[in-house]
Design brief:
GO terms for molecular function: ATP binding; sequence-specific DNA binding. The chain is an alpha/beta fold. 46% of the residues lie in helices and 11% in strands.
Length: 462
């Protein structure tokens, strides 16, 4: 049976493997068997050759014969005790006894296989290493996301936001590159996360702020580097493209990317491969790229600050995220969402916003968009002050003449008139109206029953 027939369901990754064995037949056999699992497969017949290869690139997995011409595989692995250069290792030998096996496992081996072996044994051991490595990457990205407190909920029911949600659902399942444009704070990363979640891709979502990383380090962050590639590079390191294997990488503020990195990114998009800094080998990748910018990239192209060919590569599918001031009808829903979220995070009792406060928030221009709104709500919750105080202007309440009432009306009738108008403004959505009014839905239902049950009974009798 050929090696291909033994391949397990684990798909090809951006990972790399180094096979070290002095038998040419074994090197050739394993190289063919593992070529569909790894983006890079290298072989060496001696420890010296293996060291030379490791000096030019990172290997996620080492498959090493214990007895080699120039040195013991176990001794070599023990000498590689560098946290920045850790690789999983599978030992092979045809001369092992129990003491050797114990020594290999104590040296940190992931597995120990006796020669001759069935290919299924090796494939099973390799799959365990791959799954463990992928889990480490997934946990790393999960911790990274939790530390940033990211949410994946798109809030709002305005026509503009409904259009955005519709486009997301339509293009998410594709693998095409997406360019998201919009002002700072409009939620471009949120949209990118939603695209990833609905894409069906199994890998991680990896966000990168291109403007927050020093230009001289950006290549290393994205593509990884080898030991000695630059000053301070003591060991090999994976890049964020590798962490995004099988998933999505989100390149935020792509307009801030230096010109030399734009050239490198263009090559990645065209070749679907990355080359770690200092390495001579390219590694194939399976990563969807989503980019975002708060600039008009076409203007940057005309000004000579952004490569025209890269712009057209990124602008396959384009999305423009509306500013918050262009959809004031979403401000109230966002306010209640952030209030609940922040109250839970801060351990503070739920805050009830007055109708006047909500109107003030709706009237603000929000130059910082949703990010500014969330910060304002957090400030109001912590300090217990209404939003109008922070802008040092009086509360300006919009009054609709149609909501007027005679001064001799009883209080109950005024309340009924006002509540009815608020419900009408939400197209009959009592839950939304109740939030505006600062009461529970149950209370609102009870009031409607008191006000209109008699009228309904009269209609039923007629």
């Amino acid at each position: 049976m050929s090696p291909d027939e033994h391949m397990s369901p684990v798909s090809k990754t951006t990972m790399s493997v180094l096979i070290v064995d002095d038998e040419p037949g074994m090197r050739s056999f394993l190289m063919k068997a593992l070529s569909k699992k790894f983006a890079l497969v290298e072989t060496a017949s001696t420890i010296a050759q293996a060291e030379e290869l490791r000096s030019h690139g990172h290997f996620d997995l080492l498959i090493v014969d214990i007895r080699l011409p120039d040195r013991s595989g176990i001794e070599w692995h023990e000498a590689l005790n560098d946290p920045e250069r850790q690789s999983d290792i599978i030992f092979m030998t045809g001369y092992a006894d129990m003491d050797v096996a114990i020594k290999a496992l104590r040296a940190g081996a992931s597995d120990f296989i006796m020669k001759p072996f069935h290919l299924e044994q090796m494939i099973t051991a390799v799959d365990r290493c791959i799954e463990k490595r992928l889990l480490k990457r997934e946990n790393f990205m999960l911790r990274r996301e939790l530390s940033h407190g990211q949410s994946s909920t798109i809030i709002g029911n305005s026509e503009a936001i409904r259009d955005v949600k519709e486009v997301i659902e339509r293009i998410a399942p594709t693998n095409a590159v997406v360019l998201i444009e919009g002002e700072s704070g409009t939620g471009k990363e949120l949209v990118a996360r939603q695209l990833h979640q609905l894409s069906g891709r199994s890998g991680a979502f990896v966000p990168v702020n291109c403007g927050a990383i020093a230009p001289e380090l950006l290549a290393s962050e994205l593509f990884g580097h080898t030991a000695g590639a630059f000053t301070g590079a003591k060991g090999n390191r994976e890049g964020l493209f590798s962490y995004a294997s099988g998933g999505t990488i989100f390149l935020d503020e792509i307009g801030e990317m230096p010109m030399n990195m734009q050239t490198a990114l263009l090559r990645v998009l065209e070749q679907r491969a990355i080359r770690p800094v200092g390495s001579e080998k390219e590694i194939d990748i399976n990563v969807r790229v989503i980019a975002a910018t708060n600039r008009l990239l076409i203007d940057e192209v005309e000004a000579g600050r952004f490569r025209r060919d890269l712009f057209y590569r990124l602008n396959v599918l384009n999305m423009v995220i509306p500013s918050l001031r262009s959809r004031p009808e979403d401000v109230v829903e966002l306010t209640h969402f952030f209030t609940l979220q922040l109250s839970q995070e801060l351990g503070i009792k739920d805050v009830i916003w007055s109708h006047e406060d909500l109107q003030v928030l709706q009237q603000h221009d929000w130059p910082g968009n949703i990010r500014e709104l969330r910060n304002m709500i957090e400030r109001c919750i912590l300090l217990g002050k209404p939003p109008a105080e922070y802008w040092k202007k009086p509360v300006s309440v919009v009054v609709n003449d149609a909501m007027g009432y005679p001064l001799n009306w009883p209080l109950k009738e005024v309340e009924k008139q006002h509540v009815t108008k608020v419900v009408d403004s939400h197209n009959g959505n009592k839950s939304a109206a109740a939030r505006d009014l600062g009461v529970s839905r149950k209370t609102l239902d009870r009031k409607f029953k008191d006000w209109f049950s008699h009228e309904n009974e009269g209609l039923e009798e007629e």
